[in-house]
Design brief:
Elements lengths: L1 E2 L3 E6 L4 E6 L4 E6 H12 L7 H12 L3 E2 L3
Helix pairs in contact: 1-2
């Protein structure tokens, strides 16, 4: 899987929250600042999902269209 080219990220609330938007699927997600770095790591390489929490996050990212099939 790879990150969608339609992903856009916008810091809001003074940078405490990041709004994630996928312009292809229309999905909007709110990510707390503490989790944003991990989200970016998993978008860059979802094989880094080593914990159950990471795997659930990858599933959510895929369901929202933020992660797509390689093909």
């Amino acid at each position: 899987m790879k990150a969608s080219t339609y992903n856009h990220f916008f810091p809001i609330d003074g940078g405490t929250v990041v709004l994630a938007y996928n312009s292809f699927s229309g999905t909007l997600a709110e990510i707390d600042r503490e989790s944003y770095g991990r989200v970016q790591e998993l978008l860059a390489d979802c094989s880094r999902a080593t914990t159950e929490q990471d795997r659930e996050l990858v599933e959510c990212l895929a369901a929202g269209g933020f992660l797509i099939d390689d093909g």
